[in-house]
Amino acid sequence: MPLSEAQQAEIETARAARFETRRATVPALEEMLFTALPVLDHGFVRVIDYMGDDAAVVQAARVSYGRGTRKVSEDKALIKYLMRHRHSTPFEMCEIKYHVKLPIFVARQWIRHRTANVNEISARYSILDKEFYLPRPEDLAAQSSVNRQGRGDILEAEQASMVLDLLRDDAERTYRNYAWMLNEEDAEDHDADRPGLARELARMNLTLNTYTQWYWKTDLHNLLHFLSLRADAHAQYEIRVYAEAMLESVKAWVPGCYEAFCDYRLGAVSLSAGMLSVVKRLLAGEAVTQETSGLGKREWTELMLSLDRPGA
Amino acid sequence: MPLSEAQQAEIETARAARFETRRATVPALEEMLFTALPVLDHGFVRVIDYMGDDAAVVQAARVSYGRGTRKVSEDKALIKYLMRHRHSTPFEMCEIKYHVKLPIFVARQWIRHRTANVNEISARYSILDKEFYLPRPEDLAAQSSVNRQGRGDILEAEQASMVLDLLRDDAERTYRNYAWMLNEEDAEDHDADRPGLARELARMNLTLNTYTQWYWKTDLHNLLHFLSLRADAHAQYEIRVYAEAMLESVKAWVPGCYEAFCDYRLGAVSLSAGMLSVVKRLLAGEAVTQETSGLGKREWTELMLSLDRPGA
Amino acid sequence: MPLSEAQQAEIETARAARFETRRATVPALEEMLFTALPVLDHGFVRVIDYMGDDAAVVQAARVSYGRGTRKVSEDKALIKYLMRHRHSTPFEMCEIKYHVKLPIFVARQWIRHRTANVNEISARYSILDKEFYLPRPEDLAAQSSVNRQGRGDILEAEQASMVLDLLRDDAERTYRNYAWMLNEEDAEDHDADRPGLARELARMNLTLNTYTQWYWKTDLHNLLHFLSLRADAHAQYEIRVYAEAMLESVKAWVPGCYEAFCDYRLGAVSLSAGMLSVVKRLLAGEAVTQETSGLGKREWTELMLSLDRPGA
Amino acid sequence: MPLSEAQQAEIETARAARFETRRATVPALEEMLFTALPVLDHGFVRVIDYMGDDAAVVQAARVSYGRGTRKVSEDKALIKYLMRHRHSTPFEMCEIKYHVKLPIFVARQWIRHRTANVNEISARYSILDKEFYLPRPEDLAAQSSVNRQGRGDILEAEQASMVLDLLRDDAERTYRNYAWMLNEEDAEDHDADRPGLARELARMNLTLNTYTQWYWKTDLHNLLHFLSLRADAHAQYEIRVYAEAMLESVKAWVPGCYEAFCDYRLGAVSLSAGMLSVVKRLLAGEAVTQETSGLGKREWTELMLSLDRPGA
Fold this sequence. Notes:
4 copies of one chain form a homotetramer. By secondary structure, the first copy, chain A, is of the alpha+beta class. Chain A has 3 domains: 1-128 and 209-268, Gyrase A, domain 2; 134-207; 273-306, no CATH class. Helix content of chain A is 46%, strand content 15%. Chain A contains 13 helices and 9 strands. In chain A, the strands form 2 sheets. In chain A, strands 2-3-4-8-5 form a 5-stranded antiparallel beta sheet. A two-stranded antiparallel sheet of chain A has the order 6-7. The longest helix of chain A has 26 residues, at 157-182. The first copy, chain A, is flat and about 85 Å long. Strand 9 of chain B pairs antiparallel with strand 9 of chain D. Chains A, B, C, D: Its cofactor is FAD. Chains A, B, C, D: Pathway: Pyrimidine metabolism; dTTP biosynthesis. Chains A, B, C, D: It holds the Pfam family Thy1. Chains A, B, C, D: This is Flavin-dependent thymidylate synthase.
């Protein structure tokens, strides 16, 4: 379980409170506030705070004095126009803050998105909990034979079991030795005659599937960019599940932006000049093949997949 | 006046509304919300939205699950510690959004602070209002003779009056010609036989004291950095008054951070290695002069000013 | 002319020097180095320095120890792959620095691109030259009737002439008064009895077509993003000509990246989920109209334009 | 050894080449170019490329056309002035690129500096080498009893030896199992009947002292900010040694900026308003104690340390 009873109680206390505000408020997101959406075996995503809503995007695009009196349909059309034409600054006017618990190797991918504010628990200062990610057997896959950076077939049961045993044993042993080196006063095997190794050193013995935590805050534009990359089918499964949980919060928070995002980003394809020229020839009735297309093999395959012609 | 009656009414409507939220709320800032704090002759600063409070800084520094149960004094001490040691990331967890009306030459200084989100009214799309900044006579000063980038003595009344006449005349003439070139359909002197010049071109005839507007959103860390530079005595008066109005909102919003900021930033001085060595020699009872100090003249003067020894 | 004789001489001196280096060097860009590419009536773009080349992108993508021994064709294919899949970080490994002279209203658009380093001439500190942008008659266009943010038909000769007279007169008058208020000691009409107004104040009287200058430095990824927006047909003409001059320098500097950029950015189109579905139906032989397409009018028109079916 | 023979040969080849350039060149840095400065047991820092020099900072501050003809002493004074008054943008005009090999737990601290360009070797794509950091016995210290985030006394020989055995054994075992799960075709114990686990999964079994590599590029301003934090006595030893190696490259590259940096950053102290008031009272001959100072205990101690009065 990702949360202790004390933590769960703290969350419930926070959820029980109500305040009065003049700020824009989104009931559907308020409903999710503070709750931990479980991800992987011990991780979670929690929405901690937010600022703005669909109308804030519109208000910024119009640099208006109040919330405006236009029809909802006009606002939705404006949001779609902004998204389609990549006018990104109005989407930067909404902000959201998450509390995330995630394995370190996922955190290392995630942190590459630089336009965000982050406060991570410090293993120089604190002792990390004994929690590490162990995949479900159905998530253990062989190296892909076609994509040097992806997964292929799922491992057979016996092999999966061997892999999980290794992962579990190594994580437990390295954590046990981590604790032994720390020699904390309240540890079971504390030995008063032995100094404890500095935390900033002992942590180097932990494996990359150890869980860490952070507060992560970003604006809606940068969040959507993050999600377009990490909720994508090419993203590693272990970060994609976080992106999917966050997409749920976006849907609750800014439904107009979410809809435009699905249409113009998640479901969109970019056609290069060469690809576009092939589409025009196809529309003109020409029988184009990869050889006559002017495209490389890889680009041809990608185009055919986009057009639902995988066999072409 | 910076606001029309319609704008004022829009603001009053926004202020009248109340919503229920689970989010951290700051009554003192709620009280200021949406209201235009007047700045210069036609400008203003309005707080439009905010996220977080003093406790959010503490919560991020501790990466905690709830709002915590520590004493207020402990939280204040932690904020001071973070500010003193330039642990800046917890301050990035609070966010604020302003609506600002300001002369273009001020906007050009302001925009150099890159770590912010901005939506400015577009003069390609909209027609700018006929409003331009004219200094009060007491703000018209001669070029400083000691600082190539500052002001010296205030102009005498007659000279100030001549300057103001020039500024006013030029601004009015260029605006009149701007409107003439636009040839808007609802203009008094609209001439149906004449095309209107594209807005994106006509705007080039406006002077730099014309007012523009933007939504400007940033996090508390970057806001404090902005304020430390722009509320400083060396900042140009016309941007300093905006910084001072914003400081009031910071004081209402995050009083603990504000206090630490005053102590460790606004009121602090940085001593170079050379300056520090002089201070130590003075404390040891040595009679140090500029010549024996090892400091350049300028640096010596700055040090003596910091130590309230201007004559030394 | 954008350059004085003294400036031209300084540039020639810089161009005459030769140094020995171990760094990657691009002869075609060296040939352009320091030379002013003229833009508009008084502006220019000059490449001042650069770092990296096509091979540096490849080297970073492979995190390799040297420059590698792969074939040029493999490197080109890798660059295309990176561009197509928006792996942007390897393109950040090349850096370029420009010196640009440009009208203030263009500078105001340009500065919105935040991921760059900028040093602009300070009108608090220096006196701006008497140079302002006056469009050529063929660049004076009426406000577009279909696009609220664009140009329509070119003005007729007589009207263009009236507009130019206004622009010239206003710029000259406001500059004359700027100089009068400054009352510089070496000015022809200097009056020793009169104080000079502080530069930081006098500048507010200048019009937005006054030229300014800056050093602008950015990495290749952010430069290409800038160029994709500003070399686009929807960009305002006065910034587009700067983007086009810079594109020439990119072509000389990193020909492999330039080619990929033309194919996958400049010449590419993004199809939304809805647009893609229409393309599939068209390819299946269905006669789709705007009404049956599920697309809005605007989106339909954009799709038909992309497919070279403007009448559809 | 951090480098294989093949890598060393690639570096020598790169170092042997010479090109002609018009760009500013710094012989002392050219001399270091591509060479690996060893750090820790298997790590290194290599300067790969650079752009600009001391004169580029001056040129940007003056927005000048050429390299200028001022005296070197004037340029040095200007650089000091810029550094003292935190005019940071001219320092952004120089850029440097490093190739760094470093333990993952160090990389995790380092990456928090967001204003840089990074390309890290991908463990989704490549197999990491069997190299992990093992501290020297004299670098193994106990947790500090006064600083929750630092080291205290060095471990005694026997204890250090036990710790090192644990670290080595765990790193070797987890790496062995990593390789076993990968089941690479060219591995000694390759088993054709067994699929290899996807690299993106297997990597989670590695410990945080495993070495990774990246290309890291930043501008001089952000580099100096990084170094002021990471070359500081409070930084963890394992990142400080990287900062110290990079400081050497800064000294060779921009000696004027380096000198100003040592005086105004590394050797400087910031006095809060409260601390400053204590210094003034001391200078006036008053006998101030912590109790009468108005400072907290911690702040008092910090001040006394700065003034070389540790016992006060």
